[in-house]
Amino acid sequence: MAEKKVDPATGEAYTLKELMAHYKGTYKKRELEEYWDNHCKPVKVRQSKGKATKPSKEAKPEPKAKAKAKATAKAKTAPSKPKKESKDDDEAPKGLRTGKDAGASGLAKLRTFSRCVLAEYVWLDADGVTRSKTMTMTARPVKVSDLKVWNYDGSSTGQADGHNSEVLLKPRAIFNDPFRGFPHVMVLADAWQAWDDKPAKNNTRAACAETMDMYKSLDPWFGIEQEYTLMKPGKVGLKPTMPLGFNTDGSEPAPQGPYYTGAGYNVAIGRPVADEHYKMCLEAGVKISGINAEVMPGQWEFQVGPCRGIEMGDHLTMSRYIMLRVTEKHGCVCSFDPKPKEGDWNGAGCHTNFSVTPMRINGGYDCIIKVCEAFGKVAKDHIAEYGEGNDKRLTGKHETCDINTFKYGVANRGASIRIPRDAEKAGRGYMEDRRPAANCDPYRVTNIIMKTTGECLSAEIVEAGSKTHTAFVFIKPHAVTDKVKTLVKDKLTAEGLTIKHEGSIKAELIDKKKLIDTHYGAIAAKAVKMKPSDLTVQEKAQEEFEKQFGVKWSKVMEDGLVYNAMDAAKKLGISPDELGKKYDQLKKGETIIKFGGGFYCGKVDGIYVINGFYMNMRSKFTAPGTSIYYYEVEWPAEKMSWADFRGKLLGPTDPATAPAGSLRNLIYKDWSDLGLKAQPDTGDNGVHASASPFEALAERSNWVRASVSKDAFGKALLASGVSMKMAREWFDDPAVEFEGGKKSVFDMLEDLDAGECLKKLANLLNEIIAFKLQQWSLRE
Question: What segments bear the compositional bias annotation Basic and acidic residues (predicted)?
Answer without folding.
Answer: 55-65, 82-100
